[in-house]
Amino acid sequence: MVLDEIGVRMHPKTIVGDAKAKVASKVDQTAGRAYVAANRVVSEVRARFVTEDGQPRLERIVPAAMVAVGIVGLLTVRSSKASKPVKRSRGRKR
Predict the structure, then answer these.
(1) pLDDT at 6
(2) What is the pLDDT of residues 9-48, one digit of tens each?
(3) Is the dihedral of CA 38, 40, 58, 68 positive or negative?
(4) Cα dihedral 86, 87, 91, 94 sign
(5) For the stretch 63-74, what's the b/e string if a residue is b when 16 or more beta carbons lie within 10 angstroms of its beta carbon?
(6) Which residues, other chains included, contact 14 with Cβ-Cβ below 8 Å and sequence gap of 6+?
(7) Average per-residue pLDDT in the chain?
(8) By the 8 A CB rule, do 57 and 51 touch?
(9) Alpha-carbon torsion 66, 40, 23, 25, what sign?
(10) Which residues contact 34 (CB under 8 A, 6 or more apart)?
(11) pLDDT tens, position by position, 85-94
(12) Does position 1 have pLDDT exceeding 90, yes or no?
C-alpha cells in the first residue's frame, strides 16, 4: 500500500497537478493583494477630492484639473512639433 501511495505521488500527472495548484494559489494571493492595494489607493484619492457626504471638493478638483489640462497641452504641443518635418535650407550645389 505504501508503494502505491509513493507511485501516485511520484506520477508525472500528480506532480504537474500539484505545481499548477501552487501556481494558481500564488496568483490568487498576488491578485488579491493587488486588488486590496488598488482599492486602498482609490479610496485615498477619493477622500481627497470628495467629502464624507459625497460632495465634491472644488478647492482641490479645480487645481488638479488645471494641472492635468496643462500637462496634456504640453504633450500635445510637443508631439505636434516632433511630427512636423524638419525644413532644411537649400544651399548652392557645387
Answers:
(1) 83
(2) 788 888 999 999 999 999 999 999 999 999 999 999 999 9
(3) negative
(4) positive
(5) eeeeeeeeeeee
(6) 8
(7) 88
(8) yes
(9) negative
(10) none
(11) 666 666 665 5
(12) no
Cell of 52: 464624507
Count the neighbouring beta carbons within 10 Å of the beta carbon of residue 11: 11
Tell me how long the chain is: 94
Write the secondary structure of the chain as one string of H (helix), E (strand) and C (coil): CHHHHHHHHHCHHHHHHHHHHHHHHHHHHHHHHHHHHHHHHHHHHHHHHECCCCCECHHHHHHHHHHHHHHHHHHHHHHHHHHCCCCCCCCCCC
Q: Which amino acid is at 81?
A: K
Higher pLDDT, 30 or 4: 30
